[in-house]
Amino acid sequence: MSNTLRIIKLSKPLHKWIVLAGSLIMLQAILQQATPITLKFVVDELTVQISTGQGDYQRLVFLFALILIINLGSILLNAVSQRIGDHIASRLGRYLTEMYYRKIFTLPQLYFDSEVSGKMVNQLNRGILSIRDFVGTATNFILPAILQAIFGIGVLTYFDWRIGLLAATMFPIYIAISTYSTKKWGEIQQQKNIHEDATRGRIQEVIGNIKLVKTYNTQRREWQYISDEYTTINKLYDRQSTLYHVLNFAREFGLEVAFVIILFLIFRNTFMANLSLGEMVLIIQLLNQLRWPLYGMSYILEQVQRAEADSKAFFEVLELKGNESYQTQQVSKVVRQPELKLENVSFAYEENAPVLKDITVQFHKHESVALVGHSGAGKTTFINLLLKLYEPTAGKISLSGHNYADVEHAWVREHIALVFQENELFSSTIRENVAYGVENATDKEIWQALKQANADDFVRKLPNELDAKIGERGVKLSGGQKQRIQIARAILHDKPILILDEATSSLDSKSEHLVQDALEKLFKKRLVIIIAHRFSTIQNVDRIVVLDNGTVADAGRPAELAKRKGVYSELLRYQVEGNKKLLSKYEIY
Hints:
By secondary structure, the chain is an alpha/beta fold. Helix content is 65%, strand content 10%. It is built from 19 helices and 10 strands. A 6-stranded mixed beta sheet has the order 6-7-8-3-9-10, with helices on both faces. A 4-stranded antiparallel beta sheet has the order 2-1-4-5, covered by helices on one side. It is elongated and about 125 Å long.
């Protein structure tokens, strides 16, 4: 029940609406009880008329008018309460989505590195749906079910304590069987959810990598994986369904036996003249109405168990420790000529071996520095630390004397423009992708950034130009075009630190040359850090820092490192020799 209590607490902003809806439903439940009582007086009046001829016709008309008013009032209350219920459901969906989304923004990058996005979205949707259903159930069923049960049993006891006791006994037995049934159902549901999350996550990954799947002809294997998962899901569902229906048969069988016994007692008392016909009709109607709270309580228990199972992953995310502020209203003033310093910095993924070990290096204002090293040397991790996406496991990082540990994530990132190695683009327009994160950017500024990134020519050829939609992750653009959109974004931000993570890796030689010309103009105004494997892109940097096995193996000017034995000269030699072989093959060299 822990998640159920948390759901009730989570819905606190909507408690006043829930109370209002509950009050209307309670009033509606009272009106529902009024109808059989009124019919009792109708039957009594008919009995008097039949037996003595002294019935009051005007009273009969009044009673039927009262029944009409009661029923119309009940319909009106139901319509209003349903509308309030819709209001609660829609607002609760928004509130829960916003809460989950805010939490996601505070989680460390390491969480996203280990989770599948499709799985996260499925957990969000399932959690919100289950919580909304539970709150709706609580509003629409719990109060009227309890009220009807108490009222019905009370009236039955008033006329015959044996009937009342037998009716009251049905509830604990029925609820006990329902509780056991729903508990077992929930245990199986949690297993199903694990397989469903894996299935949805894999489907989203396959769609996102559909070219890879088709290129390597793995459609059958991917299809088989989903088929196998759903075979497991269906087996779990069969177990869940069989158990539910067996237990449901047991409780329904017991319920019908109890109802037949009670009906026999009612008719026997009427036959023995212990009850009038009107009282008999009233008791039978109340008895039939007791079915609803019984079924309602069973449904409530099922919804509680469903909410417990389906909201489990939702609450697990909310319980995760966030290490970032969701939103900073106003970022402190940016340092226009910043410097970065790492002192004895180490980093490891959880309990794994360190990726970076005892790094000490400083980046000066207006300096261009290249990070060079073999694949896996720790270059991308190094950049993630500078962006404060990761927290060092040891050591200190500072920006112009401000310790990273003491400043907000937003303030650090306000200094840095990044061009990713991967194409980080939205499926929307060229305009939104270039101006992402820049409020009130004008078309003139966007076009200027595109021009500097050598991207304006191809954008002008697109339908709708800046308003052209580029598809998921920019699928409608070539690799070089996507990279230049990212570069234009970095140019438009005009931040004092520029980080290029293999920024020109997807460009052809001509585009790379033109983009390099544009970027080199920007290098003079800011601190630039470049990750590159192609040494043509870093030949004019001020300094090179060589990473090897997670440590700083060497540092110096490009010309110095080229002459000095080490990782840089080794990588440079491989690249030069590769170019010589290519040129000699075509008799150019």
